[in-house]
Amino acid sequence: MPRKLINAIKEQSLPLNDQSLDNIIETIGNARIVMIGEASHGTSEFYTTRAELSKKLIEQKGFHVIAVEGDWPSVQTVNQYVKGFGDEGASAKEVLIKSFNRWPTWMWANEEVEEFTEWLKEKNKALENKVGFYGIDLYSLYESIDEVLKFLSKNPEYKVDLEHAKKAFTCFEPYNRMPEHYALSTAHFTGECISEVSSLLKSLRNNEEKYSEEHEEDLNVIMNALVAKNAEAYYRAMMQDAKSWNTRDSHMVEAINELIKYHGEDAKIIIWEHNTHIGDASETDMKDDGLINVGQLMREQYGKDNTFAIGFGTYQGKVIAADSWGDPLEAIDVPPSKLSTWEGQLHAAGAEDKVLLFNDENRDIFNDWIGHRAIGVVYNPEFEAYGNYVPSRVGSRYDAFIYIEESNALKPLKE
Question: pTM of the entire structure?
Answer without folding.
Answer: 0.90
